[in-house]
Amino acid sequence: MFYPKTPFLGNPLLEADILKVNSAALAPLLEWLCLTPKVTTYRVNTLRCSVDAFRKKVEEKLAARYGIKSPRVYCLPNLPEMLCIDPLESQLTKAHADSELKEIMVDTNCGAALLRGAHIYAPGVLAMESCTEGELVNVYADLDGKCKRGAVKRYESPNKVFLGTGKVLMQRYQLFNNADKPASGVAVEMQSNVSGVPSLGDLSCEDGLLQNLPSIVCVRVLDPQPGERILDMCAAPGNKTSHIAELMGDWGSVVALDNSASRVRSMLPKLGNYKSIKTHVFDSTKAVAPDAPSAPIGEFTGPPFPCASFDRILLDAPCSGLGNRPQLSCSIKQAKILSSYPNIQRRLFEQAVQLLRPGGILVYSTCTVTEDECECLVAWALEKFSELHLTDATPRWGGSGLPLPGFEKCKSRLLQRFGPNGASADTVGFFIAKFQKKL
C-alpha cells in the first residue's frame, strides 16, 4: 500500500536546500519525516497536579477505550513532569483498508493529526461518500491537494494514502450544505489508525498538556531558576512559557513576547493563572532599548527593554517547521520562502545577545531540520558574538549536531538535533543550542 517517502511529493527541487552539506543523510531524513512518532507525550503542571494523579486519569481513559490491551503509560528519567504513552499492540491497529467500506478524504494536516491520535474534526473532511451515522469508513489523505471539497464520488489518485478506520458522527448534509455556517466538532471518530498511536483525542487541560518531547527538553535545557528574569522572545502558543513558570515555582519574572495580537489573546486563558508571567504584543526584533537605564527586578514596564535585562532567554525562533511529523505533504512550495527564515532568526538573535546579562544563558531552538536554520545559525552566532560560548545542552535526549566545514566536532556534540539518528526517543524533528554570555 502506498505511503510517501518524502514530504516534497511533486516538488523535489526543495529537498536539496534542507541538507546542503550533509546530503547523504537527506533520503533517510525525508522518509523519517513522513512517519509518525510512536510515543505520545504529556507535560504535567506540577503546580496544580501530581504526575501520579494525571497518570491515573490517562490510564482510566485508555482502559475505558482499550480494556486490558491498554498501552503502557510511564515517566522518563530527567524529565519528571512528563508522561509517555506507548503505541497500541499491533493487533489493535488497522494497516489495510477494508474493501467493503466506503471512503472519506481528509487534507494532509488533518491526516497528520489523526495519525498522532486525534479524531477528525469537520473542517478537515474534504469529501465523503454517502454514509449513515455510525457507519464505519476508510479514511484517506489527499496528498495531491486535488480532491474537490464536498465531492460525493470516490476520489481516485495514486497519491492518496490510507490512514485508518473511523465511525461517522456527521453526515454529508451536516458537513457541506451550509456555507454560511461551517460545521464544527468531531465528524469522524477514529477507531484505528496505521500508526498505532491511541486515538484518544487531546486530553489537555489545566493539569496536563499534550506536548512534544523536544519542546519539554528545550525548557529543561534553559533551566530557569526561582526569582530570575526570563524572556521568551517568540512565546506563542505559550506552552514553553508556562513550563518556564512551573519550573520556577511561579516565582520571578517571565516576559512573553509575540508580534501577533491574536496569538497573544489565545495565550491568555492558558497563562492567566501564573502570577510570574507578563505577556506583550511586541516585535522581538525591536526588543532592545539601547539607551535605557537598567531596571531593578520587578520594575519592568514592558518592551523595549534595556540591555542586559534578563538572566535567561529562550529564543524558540520562527522557522520553516520542517521537523513536524508525520509530514505527509510540505506546505512550503518555494525556495525563497525556505531561505527567508535564517534572516529573521539572525535579527532576533542579535536582540537576544544584547538583552542577556553577562553570565546569562541563551537557548536557541527550532522545530525544523535544515542546516541553515540550525547548525549554520550556531556557527554564524559564534563567529559574530565573541562574548558567547556554547555549553552542553543537557538533559540530552537528542543526538549531536550535524558536522559543518570549519565547525569543530566538539562543538557539534554540545548541540541537540532530534532526527532519525542519535535521538533517544521517537519524536519530532527539533534543534537546541545553549549559549552562555561571558562575564
Give a description of the structure.
The protein has about 450 residues and is an alpha/beta fold. The radius of gyration is 23 Å and the shape is globular. It folds into 2 domains: about 95-195, Roll (Archaeosine Trna-guanine Transglycosylase, Chain: A, domain 4), CATH 2.30.130.10; about 210-435, Vaccinia Virus protein VP39 (Rossmann fold, 3-Layer(aba) Sandwich), CATH 3.40.50. Strands 11, 12, 13, 14, 15, 16, 17 and 18 form an 8-stranded mixed sheet that branches. Strands 5-9-8-7-4-6 form a 6-stranded mixed sheet. Strands 2-3-1-10 form a 4-stranded antiparallel sheet. Strand 2 and strand 3 form a beta hairpin. Helix 5 (about 215-220) crosses helix 6 (about 240-245). It is built from 10 helices and 18 strands. Pfam families: Methyltr_RsmB-F. Belongs to the class I-like SAM-binding methyltransferase superfamily. RsmB/NOP family. GO terms for molecular function: RNA binding; RNA methyltransferase activity.
CATH H-level name of the largest domain... which superfamily? Vaccinia Virus protein VP39
CATH class of the largest domain, please?
Answer: Alpha Beta
Q: What's the number of extended β-strand segments?
A: 18
CATH topology grouping of the largest domain: Rossmann fold
Global Rg: 23 Å
Number of helical regions:
10
Tell me the count of domains: 2
Poorly predicted sequence stretches spanning 5 or more consecutive residues:
none
GO molecular function: RNA binding; RNA methyltransferase activity
Family: Belongs to the class I-like SAM-binding methyltransferase superfamily. RsmB/NOP family.
Organism: Drosophila erecta (Fruit fly)
Pfam families: Methyltr_RsmB-F
